[in-house]
Amino acid sequence: MALDQLVILSNFQASLIPFSEEQLAPLGLPQDVFAFLTQTGLPTHSFYELGPNAPVRFLKKPEIKTYFHFRGDYLHFADMDVMGELAVDIYSKKHESTQFIDERTAPSHVNSSIGQFIECFGAWQALYPQYQDAVRQAIFDDLFCLFDHPEIYGPHLGRLESRLREIDPDALKWRKFFWRRMCEPDVF
User: Fold this and answer.
1) Mutual orientation of helices 114-138 and 31-39 as an angle, nearest 10°?
2) Count of domains in the chain?
3) In sequence order, what are the beta bridge partners of 56?
4) Is 187 inside a domain boundary?
5) Is the pLDDT of residue 188 over 60?
6) How many angstroms separate the CA atoms of 58 and 182, rounded?
7) Per the domain annotation, does 146 fall within a domain?
8) Domain boundary residue among 87, 115, 143?
9) CB–CB of 107/116 below 8 Å?
10) What are the CB-based long-range contacts (under 8 Å, 24+) for 19-26?
11) Does residue 188 form part of some domain?
């Protein structure tokens, strides 16, 4: 996926820095993953969040890693503190992005490719702050309960889900998938 095809905020888009071919060549990455990382890249800074106290830190250089109970190698490219790690399956032919939390928790499908993850993450970065602003403006008393006001989260959540489905139709397919869970009202 080329940089000009990403429909995301310009400041997020500007933070995507391609890796040099020399830097990634020793990793022996599949062609599509290699092309994305050398043409588009990953964000260069670590102040992105999925929500309050849920940071996403992209590695300065992705690393090959194996995960307990899983065959093959994965390209670890981001850390999410208590939410685990993000990695691309480079062993299978699909090259899906996966969330690994710990050895006891089943991994969760994130996106069908690393490019789709970056685009979904960019959409999240564009829409989630608008939702947070709407909530801040609506909270005037201590008895406020967001679940009593779907008119606040509904439109924002609907726009986000629609955009995520455009980017990667499989991202919201099953309840256990990463983006589907992030779009649950209690998490969102």
Assistant:
1) 50
2) 2
3) 48
4) no
5) no
6) 19
7) yes
8) 115
9) no
10) 19/61, 19/62, 23/61, 24/62
11) no
pLDDT for 105 equals: 83
143 CB-near residues (< 8 Å, 6+ apart): none
pLDDT at 5: 43
DSSP 97-128: EEEE--TTS--EEEESSHHHHHHHHHHHHHHH
Nearest to residue 84, comparing CAs of 103, 71, 65?
103
Helical (H) or strand (E) element with 77: strand 74-79
pTM: 0.81
Average pLDDT over residues 80-101: 87
Are 150 and 58 part of one and the same domain?
Answer: no
The pLDDT > 90 percentage for the chain reads 28
Q: pLDDT band for position 25 (50/70/90)?
A: very high
55: enclosing H helix or E strand: strand 54-65
Name the pLDDT band for 27 (thresholds 50, 70, 90).
Answer: very high
